[in-house]
Structure formats: C-alpha cells, structure tokens
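FORM 12-B: Structure-to-Sequence Request
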C-alpha cells in the first residue's frame, strides 16, 4: 500500500508559484510569492500567526482563487486544470471538514468513491488505513465521537486513500497528543522515504526541524527565507551579548531572527507577579 517509489523518477517540481498574490479587499494576505518545491522533499512552510500560510496552502490546493500570479502543481496550472491537480494531491486542512455523522470506515469509503476508486480497492485500503491509524477498534463509532487526535488521523487517512503524489498538511499536529503525534510523524517519515512530497505548515518548530528537508518562512505575506534547513541555519550571523555567533543554530532561533522577533526575558515582563 502507498508504494510511491516510482515518484522519484519525476523530474518536474512538485510545486511552483510565480508572483503569487492574494488580496482581500485592500488587504494583501500573500504578496508576490515565488516558491519551488522539488519532488520527494519534505517542505516546511513557516510563519507567525496571520502571515499568510493558510491562505497560500488554500490557493495551492485549489480551495481559494488567486488574485494574480500562477501556480503549477506537478507541472499543471491549477487555475486551468483544477480537477487533474486535485486527483493527484491529498489535503489535510486545518479545519478537517469531516462528515461527523459517518463512521470512520464510511468516511473513507465516501472519499474513495469521490476519487473514483473501485469498491474492492476502497474496502482493502480502508481496512489498512484504519489499522495503520489505530482507528479500527470501534468500527461503529461515529466521527462526532472521535477525539481531536482521532479526527486528525482520519483526515490524514482520507488524504492518502487515493495514493496522492503530494500531501498538503495545514497544522496537522495542532491539538494532537503525544501518542497521535508520534504516529503521524512516523508515518510521514515513511511516506517521504518512498518518494511522496509533503508540504507542511506548522507552529511546532521542533517537529519541523526533525522532519523537514527544506523550509520557507513567510512574514506579513512575503517570503523572508527559503532553502534547505541546514543551509539556512548555517548562512546567517546572529549578534547577542556583545558578540557575533556563527554556525548552526536551532530552527527556533533562526525563525525568530528572520522574522524580526525579540525574545523577552523573565526579568523584563510581568514584574507585578513578583
């Protein structure tokens, strides 16, 4: 199941954007973004709250129209060939969008039918995915009764059932407990090892640092950094305590540096707490 080794032969980029812009009235949420994500990479798309991450991922997956610019996914223009692109990608949106009056198996069956899979194929993949996500213990349980972590895992299973070439994940670890998080991380690592491209947004920088091969950082709608994780962390100089620091740093320190954040010490804030 989900053997994506053949994807390694694809030479075209998984995702490309050209001067991508999205405005809401007079507010520019995404401002002339140019991205290139190579096939088979684990790409982390980072930024502070309100930076434009979710807006970008919605445009990349055809859920939101662009104001101007161009998006190519697997070599196809998503504005002129949206159905062909959507057949080849999997999406786990931040709000999940599950039908909560269905069981997990029924949700997967519905999703498989939407992608045109045959019933026998759907049944086999549903059984495997529910077992993989540890959701097969209570087959009659409705999605509305699932915990948040269970819903995240089911949403990921729905995104995988048609064997996508790219997986878009918008905050997949938000609100997920440690056990569910470990399951998701291990699965994503195995999938990228098989050639699947993953495009991830997350605020959990430790997870991004562990999983991602490449990152881009967006702030106020504009890209402020893009490249491989190791290259970016090695490529800047950070000043502190009166001297310059060179060489590798944590992703958290790098992120704060490039978006212009300033960390406050305990001595500087909330003095009234004593």
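FORM 12-B RESPONSE
SEQUENCE OUT:
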């Amino acid at each position: 199941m989900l053997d994506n080794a053949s994807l390694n032969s694809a030479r075209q980029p998984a995702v490309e954007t050209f001067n991508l812009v999205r405005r809401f009235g007079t507010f520019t949420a995404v401002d002339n973004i140019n991205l290139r994500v190579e096939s088979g990479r684990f790409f982390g798309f980072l930024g502070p709250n309100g930076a434009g991450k979710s807006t970008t991922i919605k445009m990349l997956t055809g859920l939101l129209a662009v104001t101007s610019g161009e998006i190519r996914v697997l070599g196809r223009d998503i504005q002129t060939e949206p159905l062909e692109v959507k057949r080849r990608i999997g999406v786990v949106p931040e709000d999940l969008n599950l039908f909560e009056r269905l069981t997990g198996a029924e949700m997967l069956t519905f999703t498989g039918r939407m992608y045109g899979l045959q019933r026998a194929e759907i049944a086999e993949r549903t059984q495997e995915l529910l077992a993989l996500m540890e959701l097969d213990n209570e087959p009659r349980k409705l999605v509305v009764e699932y915990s948040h972590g269970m819903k995240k895992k089911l949403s990921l299973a729905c995104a995988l059932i048609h064997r996508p070439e790219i997986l878009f994940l918008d905050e997949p670890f938000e609100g997920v407990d440690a056990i569910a998080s470990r399951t998701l991380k291990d699965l994503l690592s195995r999938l990228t090892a098989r050639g699947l491209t993953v495009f991830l947004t997350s605020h959990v920088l430790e997870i991004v640092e562990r999983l991602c091969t490449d990152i881009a950082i967006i702030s106020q709608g504009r890209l402020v950094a893009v490249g491989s994780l190791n290259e970016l962390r090695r490529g800047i100089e950070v000043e502190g305590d009166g001297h310059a620091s060179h060489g590798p740093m944590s992703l958290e320190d790098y992120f704060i540096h490039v978006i212009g954040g300033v960390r406050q010490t305990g001595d500087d804030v909330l003095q009234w707490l004593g």
